[in-house]
Design a protein that fits this description.
alpha/beta; Rossmann fold; Dihydrodipicolinate Reductase, domain 2; 9-stranded mixed β-sheet; 6-stranded parallel β-sheet; 15 strands
């Protein structure tokens, strides 16, 4: 039986990723769209004929609570500003709806920890689940890279770098909550958790980060409070590596490289490069997209089967957030090492 779904939030990511992903998922059927304004809800539903619209300005019977009261909607996908999401997550879970909410899990570790505790104390998780969307865990290139790392022996070291320049006027900059962030890290929080998730996936649990030391900087005035982090991670196995991310530099591109006993594994955009015994092999994943279709499909299958995908638990997302927050705190302390607890 198809699962009735509502999309909560009608921003660019909902239009570019959430809507196509729901339409592509065999187990899901879009029933409704909610946005704070009817105008924005209509913009997402522009080419749809079968989705009911809800908003704060649509009048009686068309509020978020009214949407949650519908018995034909079993699940919601929430993509709202970071500070706003927790309230909508709680309301949906209280209405016994499955939730897939965009990363980060919350604005900081304290808020996330409180929300996770509330979830387990107040929700029957055998019947209703809260999942956190982290598409990097579903990208084919990262999954293939992780499999190659497992075959290449012990990890000896690693380096992650993601460099870009976010210009004023670009579509993801020109939103009030990003231009003037009321949360730690600015773009580093909003985007940085992706790169942490990708790195953690490649490292695997046996090489989970346990301690970080970092320097942070604000290279561009329009990217408060900081836009750059350069860090060293110490891992559970004892090896260390580097993590460098900036949204304010003229460097460009991303690269995730792990040195293993038998060679190196590098994940690039939609490509994995293996160097072993002096020979280089590459494999391309041109059709992987952003990984959102794979992630939404897995979420729907988890609801159908009653088995939540472990990659989507809030606890997994909390680990990403903790690393990010620790790096920011270390940067504030001029590189002081911070131990991780989760």
């Amino acid at each position: 039986m198809s699962i009735g779904v509502a999309i909560i939030g009608s921003g660019m990511f909902a239009k570019d990723e959430h809507l196509p992903a729901v339409q592509a998922a065999p187990s899901l059927t879009l029933k409704a769209i909610y946005s704070r304004s009817l105008k924005s809800a209509k913009s997402l539903a522009e080419n749809l004929s079968n989705a009911d619209l809800y908003s704060d300005d649509s009048g009686e019977g068309k509020s978020y609570s009214d949407l949650l009261a519908r018995s034909d909607i079993q699940a919601v996908i929430i993509g709202l500003p970071i500070l706003t999401q927790p309230t909508y997550i709680r309301q949906a879970l209280e209405a016994s709806k499955h939730v897939l909410a965009e990363k980060p899990v919350a604005k900081d570790v304290a808020t996330a920890t409180e929300l996770v505790k509330w979830y387990h104390d107040n929700v029957d998780t055998s019947k209703v689940t809260w999942s956190v969307a982290e598409n990097f865990r579903f990208m084919d290139s990262f999954l293939h890279g992780a499999e190659q790392v497992r075959q290449m022996g012990r990890v000896l070291g690693f380096r992650t770098r993601m460099h870009a320049f976010v210009k004023p006027g670009t579509k993801y900059f020109e939103t009030a909550w990003r231009k003037t962030p009321e949360y730690q890290g600015g773009f580093l929080l909003d985007g940085g958790v992706h790169f942490i998730a990708g790195t953690r996936l490649l490292l695997q649990p046996e090489n989970a980060p346990t301690r970080v030391s970092a320097f942070t900087a604000r290279l561009q005035e329009h990217l408060p409070p900081v836009d750059t982090v350069d860090a060293t991670w110490k891992t559970k196995s004892g090896v260390s590596g580097t993590f460098s991310v900036s949204f304010g530099t003229t460097f460009s591109g991303s690269e995730y490289t792990l040195a293993c006993e038998k060679g190196t594994v590098t994940v690039l955009r939609s490509m994995v490069k293996i160097v072993k015994d002096g020979k280089e092999e590459t494999k391309e994943f041109s059709g992987e997209g952003a990984g959102v279709k794979q992630e939404v499909k897995a979420w729907g299958e988890g609801i159908e089967s009653g088995n939540q995908d472990p990659r989507q638990t809030p606890e997994e997302a909390l680990k990403d957030l903790e690393v990010l927050e620790a790096m920011l705190q270390s940067g504030e302390g001029n590189g002081v090492p911070i131990d991780l607890k989760h």
